[in-house]
Design a protein that fits this description.
The protein is α+β, with helices and mostly antiparallel strands. The chain is about 35% helix and about 25% strand.
Length: about 375
């Protein structure tokens, strides 16, 4: 497989130019016009590689892209997103540049370099006349804000696929992600009774005091040893300093390692009851991104990836993370899913966001070998 690596190294200038074009096409999730400009750039480059590109039109978000590279079934789904957390203009404050072996720029690590290396991987299979399965590259535009318009599309495509390869950044040292926590967002709303804080405080029912009780109750749900975290991240309430508050609310971030705990935390949240007479609780939300559990369907795919990495001279580790990705959705369906296949780097969502230049050609060769190997294994 050294020929794949030599090919990828010979195409480094193509790869860097592609990464730069995608990074400069800034694409904050909530700016449809900007995201669609990036999508047009991406679609043009995918068509140049021989893909049939279908924009999946969205009204309030950027249009998702479905790029199909023909080949024998079963298909491999390559999953990524090209929306970022950075506003238009961030490129001026975080210019695209190479410094001390690192390539910097907004969105470069999460995850435009991952998309570019996957494009080179597909190109390598064709140019090297290597067996290539049917590949569907699904690139979405709202992962950073919850995947509200893309989840059903992701799940539908995953059900048609023999495996899903997720282009999210790798872990430190280049390890892939074989587990991710599920993510929940709850809102606790407390309804109280307003009264004059000085003249008739006893006639009121203090919603903020009740919220404080509930925050302590929710803190008791946390069990870090089993991977369950429960954190109130935003809280507000009241109207004036001399009025007993009749309303308060809190946003609650929940992370769980298993579907069992996802169900458990939902039951616990909805079982909360008021402490202060006259108050009433309203619970909204739930676990909206299931956990990616380290099950047999994930580990089989990791083992294939580990062997491919060894063929290319590197050891491939594995690990887990508390953050979620779109791979959570596909793994929860039972479809073999491997996450964290993007290049090494650091600084996701941070001003020092970067990837390692030395990892880019190897990563492209590795993805090419992995796609080919998984495709051939599935046809047996």
């Amino acid at each position: 497989m050294t020929s794949l690596l030599r090919y990828a190294e010979s195409q480094q200038s193509w790869l860097l130019e592609t990464i730069e074009a995608l990074v400069r096409a800034e694409s904050p999730s909530t700016n449809k016009q900007a995201v669609d400009r990036c999508g047009a750039e991406l679609g043009s480059r995918l068509r140049a590689l021989g893909a049939r590109v279908e924009p999946i039109i969205q009204r309030g978000r950027g249009d998702h892209l479905r790029a199909v590279f023909d080949g024998p079934d079963p298909q491999i789904m390559v999953l990524g997103h090209f929306d970022t957390v950075w506003d238009v203009g961030q490129i001026e404050r975080m210019p695209f540049r190479a410094v001390d072996g690192r390539l910097h720029g907004p969105g470069i690590y999460d995850m435009k370099s991952g998309i570019a290396t996957a494009m080179l991987a597909v190109r390598a299979l064709g140019d090297q006349n290597l067996p290539r399965p049917r590949i569907v590259m699904l690139l979405t535009t709202d992962e950073e804000i919850g995947s509200g318009t893309s989840r059903s599309l992701i799940e539908e495509e995953a059900r048609r696929s023999g495996a899903v390869l997720v282009l999210e950044p790798s872990m430190p040292g280049g390890a892939v992600k074989t587990s991710r926590k599920g993510v929940g967002e709850f809102e606790l709303i407390v309804h109280g009774v307003a009264a004059h804080a000085g003249i008739a405080p006893g006639k009121g029912a203090n919603a903020i005091h009740e919220l404080a009780h509930q925050i302590l109750s929710m803190q008791g749900f946390q069990d870090l040893d089993r991977g369950m975290s429960v954190n109130v991240t935003v809280a507000s309430g009241g109207s004036r300093t001399n009025v007993i508050p009749d309303h308060a609310r809190a946003s609650v971030d929940v992370r769980v390692a298993t579907m069992e705990d996802a169900r458990r935390i939902g039951e616990l949240m909805r079982a909360l009851t008021p402490h202060i007479p006259g108050t009433r609780l309203e619970i909204r939300g739930g676990v909206n991104r299931p956990p990616l559990e380290r099950g047999p369907h994930v580990l089989r795919l990791y083992e294939v990836a580990r062997q491919c990495a060894e063929e290319l001279g590197q050891r491939l580790g594995e690990g887990g993370t508390g953050g979620g990705s779109d791979g959570n959705f596909t793994a929860a369906l039972g479809v073999p899913t491997l996450d964290g296949l993007g290049p090494q780097g650091d600084g996701a969502h941070a001003l020092d966001e970067h990837v390692l230049l030395s990892d880019l050609p190897w990563r492209a060769a590795f993805l090419a070998r992995l796609i080919g190997k998984v495709g051939s294994d599935l046809t047996r």
